[in-house]
Write a structure and sequence with these properties.
This protein is of the alpha/beta class. Helix content is 48%, strand content 16%. The structure holds NADP nicotinamide-adenine-dinucleotide phosphate.
């Protein structure tokens, strides 16, 4: 019997992450649904994954917290023994003109988006290299390429993901691992209602 394939989607409690989790479920993946603060919403994502005929689980961790991520991923890898797909989707905005931008707004966005990408991708990639298969898709943004007032922190973090992924391609393609970025334009989610 073919082993089930495992996908992890970060920030899957709402918005694009939830939709991605449900699409992966429709193609037969067991989906690990990560969330940070929206527990009930994450449970609803799991219900939608199950309604799509697949199985999954909810895992709470803050992608910006390196220790939390390490602990959670060790548990997930230990239990499932494989990770086929990682979708780095978790993200936040804290918009403001650069001259007015406090350290808190700068670090919150960089820590969640760029350091979160590093924290989650590294242990997953290690496991994928071991198995010589896997696919990582990270969600950047059109804001990384087209200038947008008030989004210096967000643009820097999202551009960082693109640049890091380009370098990683050169490192991991030979192991049969694909690393890609998608850069959506505006999508009607909670995130847009906060800008
Ligand atoms: P959203 O509806 O606000 O959802 C954001 C998701 O990220 C939530 O599930 C949230 O989980 C999770 N999250 C935030 N901080 C987290 C953390 N520290 N650790 C773990 N999870 C965390 O946003 P969205 O529009 O779906 O955006 C999803 C991704 O697409 C983001 O990376 C965003 O930058 C990108 N994007 C969005 C648009 C757009 O127009 N909407 C355009 C381009 C790119 P909790 O609620 O559980 O904390």
């Amino acid at each position: 019997m073919e082993e089930r394939k495992i996908a992890i989607v970060t920030g899957a409690s709402r918005g694009i992450g939830r939709a991605t989790a449900v699409e992966l479920a429709k193609t037969g993946y067991y989906v690990v649904i990560n969330y940070n603060s929206s527990e009930a919403a994450a449970a609803e994502t799991l219900a939608q994954v199950q309604a799509a005929g697949a199985q999954g689980e909810v895992q709470k961790f803050d992608v910006a917290n390196a220790d939390e991520v390490k602990e959670a991923l060790a548990r997930i890898v230990g239990e499932h023994k494989r990770i086929d797909v990682l979708v780095n989707n978790a993200g936040v905005t804290a918009d403001g003109l650069f001259l007015m931008m406090g350290e808190e707004e700068w670090h919150k966005v960089i820590d969640t988006i760029l350091n979160g990408f590093y924290n989650v991708t590294k242990p997953v990639l290690r496991e994928m290299v071991r198995k010589k298969r896997g696919s990582i898709v990270s969600v950047s943004s059109i804001s990384a390429m087209l200038p947008n007032r008030g989004q210096a922190n967000y643009a820097a973090a999202k551009a960082g993901i693109i640049a890091a992924t380009r370098s990683m391609c050169k490192e991991v393609a030979r192991f049969g691992i694909r690393v890609n970025v998608v850069a959506p334009g505006p999508i009607d989610t909670d995130m847009l209602s906060t800008v």
